[in-house]
Protein backbone atom coordinates (compact mmCIF):
# COMPACT_ATOMS: atom_id res chain seq x y z
CA UNK A 1 0.00 0.00 0.00
CA UNK A 2 2.10 2.90 -1.22
CA UNK A 3 -0.34 5.09 -3.11
CA UNK A 4 -2.65 7.25 -1.08
CA UNK A 5 -6.04 8.42 -2.18
CA UNK A 6 -6.81 12.13 -2.21
CA UNK A 7 -10.51 12.73 -1.78
CA UNK A 8 -12.23 15.22 -4.08
CA UNK A 9 -13.94 16.67 -1.00
CA UNK A 10 -12.01 19.01 1.22
CA UNK A 11 -13.83 20.34 4.17
CA UNK A 12 -10.95 19.74 6.40
CA UNK A 13 -8.92 16.98 7.80
CA UNK A 14 -5.49 18.16 8.91
CA UNK A 15 -2.64 16.39 7.21
CA UNK A 16 -0.87 13.55 8.89
CA UNK A 17 2.38 13.77 10.75
CA UNK A 18 4.86 11.08 9.82
CA UNK A 19 5.68 8.83 12.75
CA UNK A 20 7.07 5.34 12.99
CA UNK A 21 4.42 2.65 13.28
CA UNK A 22 7.07 0.05 13.90
CA UNK A 23 6.48 -0.29 17.63
CA UNK A 24 2.69 -0.24 17.57
CA UNK A 25 2.24 -4.01 17.48
CA UNK A 26 4.55 -4.98 20.32
CA UNK A 27 3.33 -5.37 23.88
CA UNK A 28 6.13 -4.57 26.28
CA UNK A 29 6.50 -4.78 30.00
CA UNK A 30 6.46 -1.56 32.01
CA UNK A 31 7.24 -1.18 35.73
CA UNK A 32 5.64 1.49 37.88
CA UNK A 33 8.39 3.51 39.56
CA UNK A 34 6.35 6.33 41.09
CA UNK A 35 2.75 7.45 41.61
CA UNK A 36 2.12 11.05 42.56
CA UNK A 37 -1.13 12.84 43.15
CA UNK A 38 -1.87 15.83 40.94
CA UNK A 39 -5.41 16.70 42.07
CA UNK A 40 -8.11 14.98 44.17
CA UNK A 41 -9.10 13.04 41.03
CA UNK A 42 -5.93 12.71 38.98
CA UNK A 43 -2.58 11.04 39.59
CA UNK A 44 0.59 10.73 37.56
CA UNK A 45 2.11 7.29 37.06
CA UNK A 46 5.79 7.05 36.14
CA UNK A 47 6.72 3.91 34.22
CA UNK A 48 10.08 2.39 33.42
CA UNK A 49 9.84 1.05 29.87
CA UNK A 50 13.38 -0.05 29.01
CA UNK A 51 12.57 -0.78 25.37
CA UNK A 52 10.56 2.41 24.80
CA UNK A 53 11.28 3.58 21.25
CA UNK A 54 10.54 7.22 21.98
CA UNK A 55 7.48 9.30 21.16
CA UNK A 56 6.43 12.69 19.96
CA UNK A 57 4.50 15.03 22.28
CA UNK A 58 0.75 14.39 21.84
CA UNK A 59 0.99 10.67 21.09
CA UNK A 60 -0.76 8.01 23.17
CA UNK A 61 -0.25 4.38 24.05
CA UNK A 62 -2.41 1.38 24.74
CA UNK A 63 -2.12 -0.18 28.16
CA UNK A 64 -3.17 -3.63 29.33
CA UNK A 65 -3.95 -5.05 32.76
CA UNK A 66 -4.46 -8.81 33.12
CA UNK A 67 -6.35 -10.61 35.90
CA UNK A 68 -5.42 -14.05 37.20
CA UNK A 69 -8.16 -15.74 35.19
CA UNK A 70 -6.75 -14.25 32.00
CA UNK A 71 -9.30 -11.45 31.72
CA UNK A 72 -7.57 -8.41 30.26
CA UNK A 73 -8.62 -4.77 30.03
CA UNK A 74 -6.95 -2.37 27.64
CA UNK A 75 -7.28 1.39 27.34
CA UNK A 76 -5.70 4.25 25.44
CA UNK A 77 -3.91 6.91 27.47
CA UNK A 78 -2.09 10.04 26.35
CA UNK A 79 1.56 10.35 27.28
CA UNK A 80 2.20 13.25 29.66
CA UNK A 81 5.98 13.35 29.66
CA UNK A 82 8.13 15.01 27.03
CA UNK A 83 10.28 12.73 24.89
CA UNK A 84 13.62 12.08 26.57
CA UNK A 85 16.14 9.30 26.84
CA UNK A 86 15.43 8.39 30.48
CA UNK A 87 13.78 5.07 29.64
CA UNK A 88 10.74 6.35 31.54
CA UNK A 89 7.40 7.76 30.49
CA UNK A 90 4.59 9.33 32.51
CA UNK A 91 0.82 9.09 32.23
CA UNK A 92 -1.72 11.15 34.16
CA UNK A 93 -4.97 9.33 34.85
CA UNK A 94 -8.33 10.56 36.05
CA UNK A 95 -10.04 8.30 38.54
CA UNK A 96 -13.10 7.37 36.48
CA UNK A 97 -16.06 6.32 38.62
CA UNK A 98 -16.40 2.56 38.31
CA UNK A 99 -13.41 2.46 35.95
CA UNK A 100 -11.73 -0.95 36.19
CA UNK A 101 -8.40 0.31 34.85
CA UNK A 102 -8.19 3.80 36.37
CA UNK A 103 -9.62 2.35 39.60
CA UNK A 104 -6.73 -0.11 39.79
CA UNK A 105 -4.19 2.66 39.28
CA UNK A 106 -5.78 4.88 41.91
CA UNK A 107 -6.47 2.30 44.63
CA UNK A 108 -4.24 -0.75 44.12
CA UNK A 109 -1.14 0.12 42.11
CA UNK A 110 2.20 0.81 43.79
CA UNK A 111 5.80 1.15 42.67
CA UNK A 112 7.19 -2.16 41.49
CA UNK A 113 3.95 -3.32 39.85
CA UNK A 114 4.27 -4.43 36.27
CA UNK A 115 1.81 -3.73 33.48
CA UNK A 116 1.98 -3.93 29.68
CA UNK A 117 2.03 -1.15 27.11
CA UNK A 118 2.18 -0.88 23.35
CA UNK A 119 3.03 2.25 21.45
CA UNK A 120 3.49 5.07 20.88
CA UNK A 121 0.39 5.15 18.68
CA UNK A 122 -0.98 7.48 16.02
CA UNK A 123 0.73 10.53 14.62
CA UNK A 124 -2.38 12.57 14.10
CA UNK A 125 -2.27 14.49 17.36
CA UNK A 126 1.51 14.62 17.56
CA UNK A 127 3.42 17.89 17.69
CA UNK A 128 7.05 17.59 16.59
CA UNK A 129 7.79 21.15 17.77
CA UNK A 130 8.01 22.48 14.24
CA UNK A 131 4.98 24.80 14.02
CA UNK A 132 3.47 27.43 16.31
CA UNK A 133 1.05 25.57 18.54
CA UNK A 134 -2.19 26.79 20.08
CA UNK A 135 -3.29 24.25 22.69
CA UNK A 136 -6.75 24.11 24.27
CA UNK A 137 -7.61 21.45 26.82
CA UNK A 138 -10.03 20.73 29.63
CA UNK A 139 -9.67 18.46 32.64
CA UNK A 140 -7.30 15.61 31.89
CA UNK A 141 -7.44 16.73 28.24
CA UNK A 142 -4.43 18.81 29.19
CA UNK A 143 -2.27 15.67 29.45
CA UNK A 144 -1.07 15.35 25.82
CA UNK A 145 -0.82 19.15 25.62
CA UNK A 146 1.45 19.17 28.68
CA UNK A 147 3.80 16.82 26.86
CA UNK A 148 4.05 19.56 24.22
CA UNK A 149 4.61 22.34 26.78
CA UNK A 150 7.29 20.28 28.52
CA UNK A 151 8.97 19.47 25.22
CA UNK A 152 8.92 23.14 24.25
CA UNK A 153 10.58 24.01 27.54
CA UNK A 154 13.05 21.15 27.68
CA UNK A 155 14.34 21.88 24.20
CA UNK A 156 14.25 25.65 24.62
CA UNK A 157 12.21 25.95 21.42
CA UNK A 158 11.45 29.46 20.26
CA UNK A 159 8.47 28.53 18.09
CA UNK A 160 5.41 30.20 19.71
CA UNK A 161 3.24 28.05 21.96
CA UNK A 162 0.14 28.98 23.99
CA UNK A 163 -2.01 26.88 26.28
CA UNK A 164 -5.60 27.55 27.35
CA UNK A 165 -6.49 25.06 30.05
CA UNK A 166 -9.93 24.70 31.60
CA UNK A 167 -10.53 23.17 35.02
CA UNK A 168 -13.40 23.20 37.49
CA UNK A 169 -11.37 24.93 40.18
CA UNK A 170 -7.76 25.66 41.10
CA UNK A 171 -7.74 22.42 43.13
CA UNK A 172 -8.74 20.44 40.03
CA UNK A 173 -6.14 22.06 37.79
CA UNK A 174 -3.66 19.36 36.78
CA UNK A 175 0.03 20.46 36.69
CA UNK A 176 -0.95 23.78 38.33
CA UNK A 177 2.56 24.52 39.58
CA UNK A 178 4.23 23.89 36.24
CA UNK A 179 2.52 26.50 34.10
CA UNK A 180 4.33 29.61 32.98
CA UNK A 181 3.61 32.68 30.90
CA UNK A 182 2.47 30.49 27.96
CA UNK A 183 -0.60 29.32 29.89
CA UNK A 184 -3.99 30.85 30.65
CA UNK A 185 -6.07 28.79 33.10
CA UNK A 186 -9.84 29.10 32.90
CA UNK A 187 -12.03 28.02 35.85
CA UNK A 188 -15.60 26.86 35.33
CA UNK A 189 -16.90 26.46 38.92
CA UNK A 190 -14.70 28.40 41.30
CA UNK A 191 -11.69 30.61 40.82
CA UNK A 192 -9.21 32.56 42.91
CA UNK A 193 -10.30 36.02 44.02
CA UNK A 194 -10.45 38.40 41.10
CA UNK A 195 -10.45 35.69 38.43
CA UNK A 196 -13.74 35.33 36.55
CA UNK A 197 -15.60 31.98 36.59
CA UNK A 198 -16.86 30.59 33.26
CA UNK A 199 -16.19 28.45 30.22
CA UNK A 200 -13.51 29.02 27.64
CA UNK A 201 -15.04 31.71 25.43
CA UNK A 202 -14.46 33.82 22.35
CA UNK A 203 -12.85 36.38 24.65
CA UNK A 204 -10.06 33.88 25.41
CA UNK A 205 -9.60 32.70 21.84
CA UNK A 206 -9.81 36.01 19.95
CA UNK A 207 -6.62 37.59 21.39
CA UNK A 208 -4.65 34.44 20.60
CA UNK A 209 -5.78 34.51 16.98
CA UNK A 210 -5.12 38.23 16.83
CA UNK A 211 -1.47 37.72 17.76
CA UNK A 212 -1.02 35.01 15.16
CA UNK A 213 2.58 34.06 14.39
CA UNK A 214 3.79 33.96 10.77
CA UNK A 215 2.28 30.89 9.10
CA UNK A 216 -0.52 30.79 11.66
CA UNK A 217 -1.27 28.42 14.52
CA UNK A 218 -1.61 24.66 14.45
CA UNK A 219 -4.46 24.14 16.95
CA UNK A 220 -4.71 21.10 19.23
CA UNK A 221 -7.92 20.53 21.19
CA UNK A 222 -8.29 17.79 23.79
CA UNK A 223 -11.06 16.98 26.26
CA UNK A 224 -14.54 15.53 26.48
CA UNK A 225 -16.61 15.52 23.32
CA UNK A 226 -18.72 18.38 24.67
CA UNK A 227 -15.64 20.47 25.34
CA UNK A 228 -14.03 19.56 22.01
CA UNK A 229 -17.17 20.61 20.11
CA UNK A 230 -17.33 23.89 22.04
CA UNK A 231 -13.64 24.76 21.72
CA UNK A 232 -13.36 23.78 18.06
CA UNK A 233 -16.40 25.89 17.23
CA UNK A 234 -14.82 28.88 19.00
CA UNK A 235 -11.66 28.40 16.97
CA UNK A 236 -13.55 28.22 13.67
CA UNK A 237 -15.60 31.30 14.56
CA UNK A 238 -12.41 33.17 15.42
CA UNK A 239 -11.00 32.39 11.99
CA UNK A 240 -8.77 29.37 12.61
CA UNK A 241 -8.77 27.24 9.41
CA UNK A 242 -10.62 23.93 9.98
CA UNK A 243 -7.81 21.94 8.40
CA UNK A 244 -5.47 23.20 11.09
CA UNK A 245 -7.49 22.03 14.07
CA UNK A 246 -6.57 18.61 15.48
CA UNK A 247 -9.00 17.12 17.98
CA UNK A 248 -8.56 14.33 20.49
CA UNK A 249 -11.79 13.41 22.26
CA UNK A 250 -12.11 11.16 25.31
CA UNK A 251 -13.85 7.90 24.86
CA UNK B 1 0.27 -14.24 30.40
CA UNK B 2 1.51 -11.33 32.51
CA UNK B 3 -0.84 -11.09 35.47
CA UNK B 4 -1.16 -7.62 36.99
CA UNK B 5 -0.94 -7.79 40.80
CA UNK B 6 -4.27 -7.08 42.43
CA UNK B 7 -6.17 -6.48 39.19
CA UNK B 8 -9.55 -8.19 39.13
CA UNK B 9 -11.44 -6.17 36.52
CA UNK B 10 -15.15 -5.69 36.18
CA UNK B 11 -17.51 -8.63 36.84
CA UNK B 12 -17.25 -11.18 34.05
CA UNK B 13 -20.24 -11.17 31.76
CA UNK B 14 -20.71 -14.07 29.45
CA UNK B 15 -21.47 -12.22 26.26
CA UNK B 16 -20.88 -14.07 23.02
CA UNK B 17 -21.39 -10.78 21.16
CA UNK B 18 -18.37 -9.11 22.73
CA UNK B 19 -15.21 -9.36 20.59
CA UNK B 20 -11.86 -9.93 22.35
CA UNK B 21 -10.47 -6.95 24.27
CA UNK B 22 -13.76 -5.03 24.12
CA UNK B 23 -16.09 -3.87 26.89
CA UNK B 24 -19.80 -3.02 26.83
CA UNK B 25 -20.20 0.78 26.78
CA UNK B 26 -23.86 0.46 27.81
CA UNK B 27 -25.80 3.61 26.97
CA UNK B 28 -22.68 5.65 26.17
CA UNK B 29 -21.81 6.40 22.59
CA UNK B 30 -18.39 8.08 22.63
CA UNK B 31 -17.52 10.49 19.82
CA UNK B 32 -13.96 10.18 18.55
CA UNK B 33 -13.71 12.11 15.28
CA UNK B 34 -10.38 13.84 14.83
CA UNK B 35 -11.70 16.81 12.91
CA UNK B 36 -14.13 19.67 13.44
CA UNK B 37 -17.74 18.46 13.14
CA UNK B 38 -18.93 19.96 9.84
CA UNK B 39 -22.06 22.05 9.46
CA UNK B 40 -23.56 20.05 6.60
CA UNK B 41 -27.33 20.39 6.03
CA UNK B 42 -29.07 17.48 4.23
CA UNK B 43 -29.73 19.76 1.26
CA UNK B 44 -25.97 20.05 0.69
CA UNK B 45 -25.19 16.38 1.27
CA UNK B 46 -24.28 14.26 -1.75
CA UNK B 47 -22.99 10.72 -2.15
CA UNK B 48 -20.95 9.66 -5.18
CA UNK B 49 -19.71 6.24 -6.29
CA UNK B 50 -17.09 6.24 -9.05
CA UNK B 51 -13.78 4.66 -10.05
CA UNK B 52 -13.93 1.18 -11.56
CA UNK B 53 -17.66 1.18 -12.25
CA UNK B 54 -19.79 1.12 -15.39
CA UNK B 55 -21.89 4.14 -14.49
CA UNK B 56 -20.45 6.59 -11.97
CA UNK B 57 -23.23 8.43 -10.20
CA UNK B 58 -23.93 11.08 -7.58
CA UNK B 59 -27.04 10.97 -5.40
CA UNK B 60 -28.45 13.92 -3.51
CA UNK B 61 -30.46 13.57 -0.29
CA UNK B 62 -33.84 13.03 -1.99
CA UNK B 63 -32.47 10.67 -4.63
CA UNK B 64 -30.76 8.53 -2.00
CA UNK B 65 -33.96 8.42 0.04
CA UNK B 66 -35.88 7.19 -3.03
CA UNK B 67 -33.90 3.91 -2.88
CA UNK B 68 -35.42 1.04 -0.88
CA UNK B 69 -34.96 1.55 2.84
CA UNK B 70 -32.98 -0.86 4.99
CA UNK B 71 -32.33 -1.17 8.70
CA UNK B 72 -29.36 -2.49 10.68
CA UNK B 73 -30.10 -3.79 14.14
CA UNK B 74 -27.12 -5.16 16.02
CA UNK B 75 -23.83 -4.17 17.61
CA UNK B 76 -20.95 -1.79 16.85
CA UNK B 77 -17.32 -2.00 17.99
CA UNK B 78 -14.78 0.81 18.35
CA UNK B 79 -11.03 0.21 18.23
CA UNK B 80 -10.62 2.21 21.45
CA UNK B 81 -12.25 -0.89 23.03
CA UNK B 82 -15.89 -0.01 23.62
CA UNK B 83 -18.71 -1.94 22.00
CA UNK B 84 -22.35 -0.90 21.90
CA UNK B 85 -25.11 -3.47 21.75
CA UNK B 86 -28.52 -3.40 20.13
CA UNK B 87 -28.19 -0.23 18.07
CA UNK B 88 -30.65 0.54 15.28
CA UNK B 89 -29.64 2.46 12.17
CA UNK B 90 -31.90 3.28 9.23
CA UNK B 91 -30.81 4.11 5.70
CA UNK B 92 -30.14 2.26 2.46
CA UNK B 93 -28.06 -0.85 1.88
CA UNK B 94 -24.87 -0.10 -0.03
CA UNK B 95 -25.86 -2.93 -2.39
CA UNK B 96 -28.62 -0.67 -3.71
CA UNK B 97 -26.07 2.02 -4.71
CA UNK B 98 -23.56 -0.47 -6.09
CA UNK B 99 -26.31 -2.17 -8.11
CA UNK B 100 -26.81 1.09 -9.98
CA UNK B 101 -23.14 1.91 -10.71
CA UNK B 102 -22.10 -1.74 -11.39
CA UNK B 103 -18.48 -2.21 -10.28
CA UNK B 104 -16.16 -3.80 -12.86
CA UNK B 105 -15.08 -7.41 -12.40
CA UNK B 106 -11.55 -6.16 -11.68
CA UNK B 107 -12.69 -4.10 -8.64
CA UNK B 108 -11.39 -5.37 -5.29
CA UNK B 109 -11.29 -2.42 -2.87
CA UNK B 110 -12.81 0.95 -2.16
CA UNK B 111 -11.78 4.12 -0.42
CA UNK B 112 -14.67 5.75 1.42
CA UNK B 113 -14.31 9.50 1.87
CA UNK B 114 -16.14 12.09 3.89
CA UNK B 115 -17.26 15.63 3.24
CA UNK B 116 -14.52 16.55 5.72
CA UNK B 117 -11.81 14.85 3.66
CA UNK B 118 -11.50 11.89 6.04
CA UNK B 119 -10.75 8.63 4.23
CA UNK B 120 -10.82 4.91 5.04
CA UNK B 121 -10.10 1.88 2.86
CA UNK B 122 -12.16 -1.30 2.66
CA UNK B 123 -12.21 -4.52 0.65
CA UNK B 124 -15.22 -4.44 -1.66
CA UNK B 125 -16.32 -7.77 -0.16
CA UNK B 126 -16.91 -5.97 3.16
CA UNK B 127 -19.20 -3.45 1.48
CA UNK B 128 -21.48 -5.90 -0.34
CA UNK B 129 -23.86 -8.72 0.54
CA UNK B 130 -26.07 -6.76 2.94
CA UNK B 131 -23.22 -5.90 5.34
CA UNK B 132 -22.88 -2.16 4.70
CA UNK B 133 -25.24 0.80 4.65
CA UNK B 134 -25.52 4.52 4.09
CA UNK B 135 -27.28 5.43 7.36
CA UNK B 136 -29.14 8.64 8.22
CA UNK B 137 -31.25 7.53 11.15
CA UNK B 138 -30.33 6.33 14.60
CA UNK B 139 -33.01 4.90 16.84
CA UNK B 140 -35.67 6.36 14.55
CA UNK B 141 -34.25 9.90 14.73
CA UNK B 142 -32.08 11.84 12.25
CA UNK B 143 -28.43 10.92 12.82
CA UNK B 144 -26.73 13.62 14.95
CA UNK B 145 -23.93 15.64 13.30
CA UNK B 146 -21.34 14.51 15.85
CA UNK B 147 -22.16 10.89 14.96
CA UNK B 148 -21.80 11.55 11.24
CA UNK B 149 -25.14 13.07 10.29
CA UNK B 150 -26.71 13.84 7.95
CA UNK B 151 -25.40 10.48 6.66
CA UNK B 152 -22.55 8.11 7.41
CA UNK B 153 -21.20 4.87 6.09
CA UNK B 154 -22.08 1.93 8.34
CA UNK B 155 -19.97 -1.25 8.23
CA UNK B 156 -20.78 -2.73 11.63
CA UNK B 157 -18.82 -5.96 11.29
CA UNK B 158 -15.55 -3.95 11.23
CA UNK B 159 -14.10 -1.52 13.81
CA UNK B 160 -16.09 1.67 13.64
CA UNK B 161 -13.38 3.94 12.17
CA UNK B 162 -14.26 2.17 8.87
CA UNK B 163 -17.82 3.58 9.10
CA UNK B 164 -16.88 7.00 7.74
CA UNK B 165 -18.94 9.88 9.13
CA UNK B 166 -20.37 12.57 6.79
CA UNK B 167 -19.93 10.14 3.92
CA UNK B 168 -19.36 11.82 0.55
CA UNK B 169 -18.39 8.96 -1.71
CA UNK B 170 -16.71 5.69 -2.58
CA UNK B 171 -13.90 5.37 -5.08
CA UNK B 172 -13.86 1.80 -6.40
CA UNK B 173 -10.32 0.46 -7.04
CA UNK B 174 -8.51 -2.69 -8.14
CA UNK B 175 -6.01 -2.40 -5.26
CA UNK B 176 -5.87 -1.25 -1.64
CA UNK B 177 -4.92 2.32 -0.69
CA UNK B 178 -4.63 3.22 2.99
CA UNK B 179 -7.01 5.80 4.42
CA UNK B 180 -6.55 8.33 7.21
CA UNK B 181 -6.11 6.10 10.26
CA UNK B 182 -4.59 3.30 8.19
CA UNK B 183 -1.76 5.72 7.29
CA UNK B 184 -1.48 6.45 10.99
CA UNK B 185 -0.73 2.86 11.92
CA UNK B 186 -4.18 1.29 12.08
CA UNK B 187 -4.99 -2.07 10.51
CA UNK B 188 -5.96 -2.29 6.82
CA UNK B 189 -9.09 -4.35 7.53
CA UNK B 190 -10.04 -3.88 11.18
CA UNK B 191 -11.94 -7.07 11.99
CA UNK B 192 -12.84 -6.87 15.71
CA UNK B 193 -13.19 -10.65 16.01
CA UNK B 194 -9.54 -11.05 15.05
CA UNK B 195 -8.58 -7.96 17.04
CA UNK B 196 -7.05 -6.26 14.00
CA UNK B 197 -6.42 -2.92 15.71
CA UNK B 198 -3.03 -1.88 14.44
CA UNK B 199 -0.98 -2.60 11.36
CA UNK B 200 0.59 -6.03 11.82
CA UNK B 201 -2.05 -7.37 14.26
Automatic annotation (TrEMBL), chain A:
Q: Does the keyword Cell inner membrane apply?
A: no
The cofactor(s) it depends on are: FAD
InterPro entries assigned: Cbr1-like_FAD-bd_dom (IPR008333), FAD-bd_FR_type (IPR017927), FNR_nucleotide-bd (IPR039261), MRET (IPR050415), Riboflavin_synthase-like_b-brl (IPR017938)
Q: Where is the FAD-binding FR-type domain?
A: 25-127
- The answer to keyword Iron-sulfur applying to this record is yes
A GO molecular-function annotation? oxidoreductase activity
Recite the UniProt keywords alphabetically. 2Fe-2S, Iron, Iron-sulfur, Metal-binding
Q: What PANTHER family does UniProt report for this protein, alphabetically?
A: NADH OXIDOREDUCTASE HCR, PROTEIN RFBI
Q: In its UniProt entry, what is this protein called? A: Ferredoxin reductase
Q: Origin organism of this chain?
A: Streptomyces cupreus
Automatic annotation (TrEMBL), chain B:
What the entry lists under Pfam families is as follows: Oxidored_molyb
Q: Which residues are in the Oxidoreductase molybdopterin-binding domain?
A: 38-181
The protein's name in its UniProt record: Sulfite oxidase-like oxidoreductase
The organism named in the record is Streptomyces cupreus
Q: What is the lineage of its organism?
A: Bacteria, Bacillati, Actinomycetota, Actinomycetes, Kitasatosporales
Amino acid sequence: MTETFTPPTRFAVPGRIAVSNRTATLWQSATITEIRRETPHAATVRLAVPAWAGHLPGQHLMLRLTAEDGYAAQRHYSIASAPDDSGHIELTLDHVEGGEVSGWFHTVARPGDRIEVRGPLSGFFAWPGDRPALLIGAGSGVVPLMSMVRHHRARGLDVPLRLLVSARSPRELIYAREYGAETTPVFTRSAPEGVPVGRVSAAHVAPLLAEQPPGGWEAYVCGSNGFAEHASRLLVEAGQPVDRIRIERFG
Amino acid sequence: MNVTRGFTGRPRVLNAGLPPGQYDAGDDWPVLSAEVTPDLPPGQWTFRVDGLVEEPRTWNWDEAHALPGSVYEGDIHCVTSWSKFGVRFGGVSLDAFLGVVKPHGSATHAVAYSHTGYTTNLPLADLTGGRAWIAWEYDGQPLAAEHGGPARLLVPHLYFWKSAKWIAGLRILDHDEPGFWEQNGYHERGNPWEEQRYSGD
